[in-house]
Design goal:
By secondary structure, this protein is an all-beta fold. It is about 0% helix and about 40% strand.
């Protein structure tokens, strides 16, 4: 049943229309009576209520009026007039709501002459308490080659209605949204070498309430053979393989099925695994180290793998752990034995929840030489 109300209705009149004001039943087809809005619905998110509705098939360009009231109110309040819609869909966003209150909304169509037809029924929505999750804790950045990897603690997950995180770039005090993720990691591939970037992370609950920002974390990408990363073979197979490149122009990260790979990364419920390639073997035990290489001027407590073991290599998978170095014996481009080493800096997930491993690496160009100090060009 459609209801048509003749004349210019004020707020109180709309409320009274349900108590005997002029109502025209079966209004469809009556000349001058506007088509009532259809499928009126309301949703709450992030401090606002969105009121939506669809255009009737016989809609003729009439405007719409949106009315609202708290369920405890006796009268309706006119809050907006909507004169344009997108396609067959209309939207109004009510920002004037308070927490812990249930609201009702009614939408009507109205002609220029003041003939008004309201929707068949009012719709309700509850506005919950504005209580965002805790601010993300322990934020820090791992600087990579033309990228920054952001990670932080899990304190925000203590909230029962935790949903996801938002990552912002801090630009001279202004926050620019970079992306969103539901894991404690984000890979910024837009960061360029030689520039310092500041980041802020917030947490968001299921109703869109956002926490305050974390402390600013900074990272400066730099070109070197640190900060390499590969993905899990199942998550991103095209970037899960690695080979010790002999030329700086060669990209060492390859497809996990590439026959020239020296290893690829795989993960399962037990952790991250280094899987040797067809022409590679790995020493089965990782070495606890504080750096890939302890160069001149390193502190007295620096620990690295200066020389590769000569025997004991295996072709089985080896479980990876952070802050450990793993030594490889591989067949080089010259078809002779070479030694290489990687040091795992971080095992985690990016913003798409894809598993990855970030590591530093070195490679001995002289065949048969176990000394791992010389890297590319050494």
């Amino acid at each position: 049943m459609k209801r048509a109300i003749a004349g210019l209705l004020m707020v109180g009149a709309l409320a009274a229309c349900q108590d005997g004001l002029l109502i025209v039943e079966d209004a469809e087809g009556i000349s001058g009576v506007p088509a009532a809005p259809r499928a009126v619905a309301v949703t709450y998110y992030a401090g606002s209520v969105q009121v939506t509705w669809e255009l009737a098939s016989d809609w003729n360009g009439e405007a719409f009026r949106v009315y609202s009231r708290r369920v405890s109110d006796a009268s309706w309040f006119f809050i907006a007039e909507v004169t344009s819609c997108s396609g067959d869909f209309c939207l109004y966003e009510d920002l004037n709501v308070v927490e812990d209150v249930t609201y009702e909304y009614l939408v009507s169509a109205v002609t220029d002459g003041g003939v008004e037809t309201d929707a068949a029924a009012a719709v309700q929505v509850y506005v919950p308490t504005f209580s965002p999750p805790p601010v993300p804790d322990l934020p820090y950045v791992v600087a990579l080659d033309n990228a920054n990897f952001l990670t932080w603690g899990t304190a925000s997950r203590g909230s029962d209605d935790f949903s996801h995180y938002k990552i912002y770039l801090d630009d001279a005090g202004e926050s620019l949204l970079l992306g969103e993720t539901d894991s404690e990691g984000f890979l910024d591939l837009l960061a360029a070498n030689g520039s310092t970037y500041g980041y802020i992370v917030t947490s968001v609950d299921a109703d869109g309430h956002e926490s305050g920002g974390s402390t600013i974390m900074e990272g400066t990408p730099r070109p070197d053979f640190t900060g390499e990363w590969v993905y899990d073979f199942v998550d991103v197979p095209s970037a899960s393989g690695f080979f010790f490149a002999e030329d700086e122009s060669d990209l060492p990260v390859v497809d996990g099925t590439d026959p020239g790979r020296h290893f690829r990364l795989e993960t399962d419920a037990n952790g991250w695994w280094i899987v040797p390639g067809p022409d590679a073997a790995i020493y089965p035990d990782g070495f606890q180290t504080t750096a890939l290489k302890c160069s001149v001027g390193a502190d007295a407590g620096c620990v690295d793998v200066a020389s590769a073991p000569l025997t004991g290599y295996v072709t089985q998978d080896v479980q990876a752990s952070t802050q450990e170095s793993y030594v490889f014996r591989v067949l080089g481009d010259d078809q002779q034995i070479h030694y290489g080493v990687i040091r795992v800096d971080l095992l985690g997930f990016d913003q798409n929840d894809d598993a990855l491993m970030i590591f530093d690496w070195a490679y001995q160009l002289q065949p048969g030489n176990p000394n791992l100090a010389p890297g590319i060009g050494g």
